[in-house]
User: Which sequence fits this backbone?
């Protein structure tokens, strides 16, 4: 499977409102969620869960500094078995779930029961600065218990408990009954920073509650800026940055080969003589790398 194509065809924006006391991020992520669903052969409830987490992680990392990386990991006891998503400052995001085929009936509101599929557990955030430069700095790590497993509430709870930032978080994935089944995905995060006016906070909470469903707006052609306009109502905002985002993995044949080369001699011998080759599958993007006998012999001779 080819990973090199630049597939950043979705958009993320970040901005401020109310004199800088409100920070806002919004994204349309339809293509990248569809790409994740296709690569991992996701069943619908799982596509909704991973799609929301991919979108939330991109939004949370919307103002990452160059070379930084953000990882959101959900470790839970539901059928999905856990979710891992990584986003970087370049707008690349990748992620996977433990069980791509987890399935549950729709809930009483006719929605995919993401909360039940995820179950109870923990929500972990890791921020590595300078990661892409190969610098090692102590990563910033924080965790909170999951509240509903519906993902948006869990991002909001994390921001409140861990960063003391009251936030409105909207994350949506809309699916069609047949392939290509992701028809819309996107969301927004609005953060009330220290000094934000109470009346502004309550006004934003009210407009977010009343705004049309984000995925419905996206299916009708809404941009990230349209989503922020709907969420902020009368409050003016200024867009400070915009970037293309996409599902992209950094795995490669060379990385897979160097991983295999690090195995001990006996393991390599057994791969060579018993399996007559080796197969490595990348968790993040499901790409498969095959090494034949000749490849293995070359690795053993180099090592
Ligand atoms: Zn990969």
Assistant:
């Amino acid at each position: 499977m080819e990973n090199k194509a630049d597939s950043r065809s979705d958009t993320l924006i970040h901005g401020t409102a109310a004199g800088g006391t409100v920070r806002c991020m919004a994204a349309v992520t339809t293509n990248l969620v569809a790409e994740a669903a296709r690569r991992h052969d996701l069943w619908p409830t799982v596509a909704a869960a991973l799609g929301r987490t991919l979108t939330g992680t991109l939004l949370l990392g919307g103002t990452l500094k160059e070379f930084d990386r953000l990882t959101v990991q959900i470790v839970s006891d539901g059928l999905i078995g856990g979710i891992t998503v990584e986003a970087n400052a370049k707008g690349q995001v990748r992620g996977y779930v433990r069980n791509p085929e987890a399935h549950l009936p729709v809930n009483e509101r006719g929605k995919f029961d993401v909360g039940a599929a995820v179950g109870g557990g923990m929500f972990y955030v890791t921020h590595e600065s300078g990661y892409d430069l190969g610098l090692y700095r102590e990563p910033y790590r924080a965790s909170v218990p999951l509240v509903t497993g519906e993902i948006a509430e869990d991002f909001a709870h994390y921001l409140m408990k861990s960063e003391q930032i009251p936030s409105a978080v909207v994350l949506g994935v809309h699916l069609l009954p047949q392939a290509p089944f992701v028809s819309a995905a996107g969301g927004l995060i609005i953060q009330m920073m220290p000094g934000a006016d109470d009346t502004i906070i309550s006004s934003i909470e009210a407009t977010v509650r009343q705004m049309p469903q984000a995925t419905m707006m996206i299916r009708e052609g809404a941009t990230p800026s349209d989503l922020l306009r709907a969420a902020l109502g009368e409050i003016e905002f200024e867009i400070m940055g915009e970037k293309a985002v996409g599902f992209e993995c950094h795995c490669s044949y060379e990385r897979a080969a160097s991983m295999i080369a690090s195995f001990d001699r006996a393991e390599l011998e057994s791969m060579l003589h018993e399996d007559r080759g080796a197969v490595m599958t990348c968790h993040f993007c499901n790409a498969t790398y095959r090494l034949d006998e000749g490849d293995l012999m070359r690795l053993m001779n180099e090592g």
